[in-house]
Amino acid sequence: MTIEQIRQFIAIVETGSINKAAKTLYLSQPNLTTSLKNLENELGVSLFERTQRGMLLTKDGRYFFSVVKPLYQQYSSLPEMFHVGKRGRPVSFCISNSYFSYVSTIYCETVERFWKDECYFNYREVNPFEVYEDVVQQHSDIGVLYFSRMTRNALLKYIKSNDVEYTRLVDCQFIISCGPNHPLAAADEDSLGVEVLSQYPVVNYDSFQHNFGMWGNSVFSKLDIPHNIVVNSRSTLHYLLNHTEAIKVGFCAKDNVSALKSQFKKIQLSDADLSMEVGWICRTGYQHNEISQYFVDRLADHFTEC
């Protein structure tokens, strides 16, 4: 498989026709057809269904496109990213975040502070294992993740064996969040028992409710949650909290529930014998630039200010 074959495949998807793609790529149609056939043979799948409406992606084709399109875009941007201008090679700052809203806020503050610099910014929200993989593969400079205290020792041993450094930020306790019009929002309660989780639908990000081996939120499976709603969109989660009786299970720094500033009501799960830890990772020996140093300092400040 070559970059050129991937470029040709993407062109066929975007034009919906081998003939149109061939014209766009300045190739003959037979040569493009042969190249596509060679790609399908190498992958062992059919990428397109030939119909009267044009070239339609198969299920395998849709998956392949979702993988290679962002990779090709990154490849295409390399010359610009590494262009040497008057100030030399531009700085890049890329982070991966396990859906923490305060991390996205700090990242936006960082961009606002440094956007005038010649810098490539990239931000991803993914599950903790993907955060780790992004840092290992050097797709991200910094990764912010959480894990269960139950798996801490094994996880940190695994991290260090792959040349990744871990910096602890805070121990966390479990809380629930609900919208301002939720029945629980009017209750004068600082804490509730875990039985409340069986009384309302519970909405969370897909990464939070699934296990990824030792990376997963293994303590979550201990909770009795009969009504699950899984999302991967922050706006959808917020809409559900604001307009339904759904609640969200999350966590915050211990003894800090009352200090949280949010549009949602936060209530501690008092009798949940559960504990999580939040921290950030980077490659061993990673040399901070001004931007990344500002970001990690703000992360530390966030919990100092809480």
Q: Would you mind describing this structure in some detail?
A:
With 306 residues, the chain is of the alpha/beta class. The chain folds into three domains: 3-81, Arc Repressor Mutant, subunit A (Orthogonal Bundle); 91-164 and 282-305, 3-Layer(aba) Sandwich (D-Maltodextrin-Binding Protein, domain 2), CATH 3.40.190; 170-276, D-Maltodextrin-Binding Protein, domain 2 (3-Layer(aba) Sandwich). It is 40% helix and 24% strand. Strands 3, 4, 5, 6, 7, 10, 11 and 12 form an eight-stranded mixed beta sheet that branches. Strand 1 (48-51) and strand 2 (54-57) form a beta hairpin. Helix 1 (3-15) crosses helix 2 (18-25). The longest helix is centred in the first third of the chain and has 23 residues, at 59-81. It is globular. The N and C termini lie far apart (51 Å).
Task: Return Rg in Å.
Answer: 23 Å
Q: pLDDT below 50 for ≥5 consecutive residues: which ranges? A: 255-260
- CATH architectural designation of the largest domain: 3-Layer(aba) Sandwich
C-alpha termini separation: 51 Å
What is the SS-derived class?
A: alpha/beta
H/E series, N to C?
Answer: HHHEEHEHEHEHEEEHEHEEEH
Q: Which secondary structure elements does this structure contain, and how are they paired or packed?
A:
Elements: H1 3-15, H2 18-25, H3 29-43, E1 48-51, E2 54-57, H4 59-81, E3 91-97, H5 101-114, E4 119-125, H6 128-136, E5 142-148, H7 152-161, E6 164-178, E7 191-192, E8 202-205, H8 206-209, E9 228-231, H9 234-243, E10 248-253, E11 265-269, E12 276-283, H10 290-305
Parallel strand pairs: 3-4, 3-5, 7-11, 8-9
Antiparallel strand pairs: 1-2, 5-12, 6-10, 6-11, 6-12
